[in-house]
Design a protein that fits this description.
alpha/beta; Rossmann fold; 7-stranded parallel β-sheet; globular
C-alpha cells in the first residue's frame, strides 16, 4: 500500500496518524509512506525520528486577533496547494489520509481533485474546523465517539474508535515500585498533559497537601512546564511528582482512578484500559471540545467531571475519596467504560482503507 498521510500541530492528531501507519505496516510490511506536515510544529521532529519520509509545508492557521497576518497566511496557503499537488502526483499513492489539523486541508483537497481516494479520521466528539471543511472532499470518515455520527454525513461516516487505543493495549504494565510506589496500595494518577496546565498546577500545589495520610497513593505528572512550580513544595510520602512519563498507558494499567484533561487520545486510552476517571476539561480549546469529549463518558456514567472554574480547596480530594473508596462505584464505571470500547480500532481503519483502494467500500 502506498500512503500519503497528513496530521499536524498536536499529539492528539499525530499519534493517531502514527497508530494508523503502524497497523498498515503490520498488515502490509512492504507499504510505503509519505507524511505531509507543517514546517514548524511537533510533527517536524516526531515523524523523521520514526524513520518515516516527511515533507514539510509552510502553512498557518488564520489569526483572529491580527487580521493583517492573514494575508501572509492566504499567500502560504496558495503555495501549499501548489506544492502539495506536485508532491502527491510524484508519490502517486493508493490512498490519502487526513488525521486532523489545518495542514490536512491542501492535502485532502488536492488529492480529491487529482482523483485519489481520501479518508479522514476525527478524534474529537465535535468535528474540528478542518475536518468540517473537508467533508465534501473525502470518501470516508472515521470517528472516535458515537456522538460524532450525528454530526457527520450518513453513508460515509463510520465508528472506528481512536487507533491510539490499540497501542495502549499493547503496552506492558509497569512495576509500581519502579516509581517508588507501593504495589499494594491503590493509585490515583493525575495528569494534565505533556506541557501541563498552569492554573490547575497552581491549584494542585495547595490541594496535594490534603492527600496527607490517605490510604491510597497519588502520582501527579505535572507536565514539563509546571514541574518546577509544583516540585518546589514538600509533600507527604504517599505523593510522588514527575514532570513527564513516556508511555503513560503503562502506568494507567496499574491505576485505580485517573484525573485528567479530556484530550481525545487520552479518553480513548481510558476507555480501552477501563480506567475510572475524573475529567477536568481544558476551557482553553477550540469550541470547548474537551468538555464535549468528556460528556461522551459522563453521560454514560463511565466518568465524572469537574469544570476547572469549580475547583476550590478540597474539591478534588473530596471527589477522589468518594470514588476510590467505593468499590461499587469503581466497578460500575468500569462496566460502563466497557460498553464504549471499540475493539481493534486501527484494524477497522486498515480494513476500510483496503476496501476503498480495492473499490469495495459502499
Amino acid at each position: 500500500m502506498r500512503v500519503v498521510i497528513s496530521a499536524g500541530g498536536t499529539g492528539g492528531h499525530i499519534y493517531p496518524a502514527l497508530a494508523i501507519i503502524n497497523k498498515i505496516k503490520e498488515m502490509e510490511p512492504n507499504s510505503e509512506f509519505l507524511y505531509i506536515g507543517t514546517h514548524n510544529r511537533m510533527e517536524k521532529d516526531i515523524i523523521p525520528e520514526k524513520g518515516i519520509p516527511f515533507k514539510p509545508i509552510e502553512i498557518y492557521g488564520f489569526n483572529k486577533k491580527n487580521l493583517l497576518k492573514n494575508f501572509q497566511t492566504i499567500k502560504c496557503l496558495f503555495k501549499a496547494f501548489r506544492d502539495v499537488k506536485k508532491i502527491i502526483k510524484e508519490f502517486n499513492p493508493d490512498i490519502v489520509i487526513g488525521v486532523g489539523g489545518y495542514v490536512t486541508v491542501p492535502v485532502i483537497v488536492s488529492a480529491k481533485k487529482l482523483g485519489y481516494k481520501t479518508f479522514l479520521h476525527e478524534q474529537n466528539s465535535l468535528p474540528g474546523k478542518s475536518n468540517k471543511f473537508l467533508i465534501k472532499y473525502c470518501d470516508l470518515i472515521g470517528t472516535s465517539f458515537p456522538s460524532s455520527l450525528k454530526l457527520l454525513p450518513k453513508g460515509k461516516t463510520i465508528l472506528t474508535g481512536n487507533p491510539c487505543s490499540e497501542d495502549a493495549l499493547k503496552r506492558k504494565a509497569i512495576n509500581k515500585s519502579e516509581l517508588g510506589l507501593s504495589e499494594t496500595k491503590k493509585l490515583v494518577l493525575i495528569v494534565m498533559g505533556s506541557l501541563g496546565a498552569g492554573r490547575v498546577s497552581e491549584y494542585m500545589k495547595k490541594e496535594l497537601n490534603n492527600f496527607k495520610n490517605k490510604n491510597y497513593e497519588v502520582l501527579f505528572i505535572t507536565g514539563k512546564s509546571s514541574y518546577e512550580q509544583v516540585a518546589e513544595n514538600k509533600y507527604s510520602e504517599n505523593i510522588k511528582i514527575l514532570p513527564f512519563y513516556e508511555g503513560l498507558p503503562s502506568i494507567m494499567k496499574k491505576t485505580d482512578l485517573m484525573v485528567t484533561r479530556a484530550g481525545a487520545s487520552t479518553l480513548s486510552e481510558i476507555i480501552a484500559l477501563n480506567v475510572p476517571s475524573i475529567i477536568i476539561p481544558s476551557p482553553f480549546v477550540a469550541n470547548n471540545h474537551q468538555y464535549i469529549n468528556a460528556l461522551d463518558l459522563v453521560n454514560e456514567n463511565a466518568a465524572t467531571m469537574i469544570e476547572e472554574k469549580n475547583l476550590k480547596e478540597g474539591t478534588l480530594v473530596e471527589a477522589i475519596d468518594k470514588i476510590i473508596n467505593d468499590e461499587d462505584k469503581l466497578e460500575k464505571m468500569k462496566t460502563n467504560l466497557a460498553k464504549l470500547q471499540v475493539d481493534d480500532s486501527a484494524l477497522i481503519i486498515y480494513k476500510k482503507l483496503r476496501e476503498l483502494i480495492d473499490g469495495k467500500n459502499k
